[in-house]
C-alpha cells in the first residue's frame, strides 16, 4: 500500500507540471548564455560613470559591437590596476575592458580585439608660464631636456613610442597614482610643470574647467613635435576566459559596425574647442 501511495504521489507531481516542463522532465535545462563583463573606469571622454550610469564614446562603441555580435554583456566600474590584476591572476576571467593599447607585455595575460579606435596624436600639457622654456621642433626629447618637472600616471602605457622614449631618458619623471584630472590640478598649483596625456582627454578636461584652461597650455605632439609610430590604436583587452571563437565574433562585429580601422570620425570623439 505504501508503494502504491508513493507511485500515486509521483504521478500527481508529474501531471501538475506545465506541459513543456513535463516534456523536458528527464532532461537538463540548457544554461543561459553568460554575460560578458565590460570593465572600465571614469576617464572622460572615453568612459564615464555618472550616478551609476556608464557612458563615454568608447563604451558606446563597444555596446554597438556587442549588440551586433549578439553577445550579452553588462558594464562595471573597476580601477585600471585592478583590471590588469584580474587578467593576470585569473585565467578564466570572462571579461573585457575597452580602450587599451596592445603591447607585448599585455599579450602575456590577455587577448586583444581588432582596433576599436585610432587616437589623435598625444599631447603635452604644461603650465602656461613654463612654455617659454621649450625648444620648438624638439618633440619629446626637447620636453625632457627642458628641465621641467614631469609627472605621469603610474601604471599607464603611453604607447610604445612614448614608453620607449621615456625609458631611455635620464630626465626625472615623477609617477602618481592620481587620475589625469588630478594631475592637471597639480600642474596648476605649481607642484609640477608638465604631463603627457591623450589629446582627446586633455581637451575634454580643459574644456570642463575655465580656470585650468587659463593656467595650462596644450601642446599636441604633431608636425615637428610628432613621435614615431603615432597615432596609436585602442582595442578591447579581454581575459583568457574569453575564448577565441568569441573573439572572432567580436572582431567580425567591429569590422561590420566600426570599420576595419576606425578613427575619430568613425567613432564619435569630441570636437576640439
TrEMBL record:
Record key words, sorted: Signal
Signal sequence range: 1-23
Source domain of life: Bacteria
Taxonomic source organism: Nitratidesulfovibrio liaohensis
Protein name per Swiss-Prot or TrEMBL: Transporter substrate-binding domain-containing protein
Segments traversing the membrane: none
Gene3D superfamilies (alphabetical): Periplasmic binding protein-like II (3.40.190.10)
Record has Iron-sulfur as a keyword: no
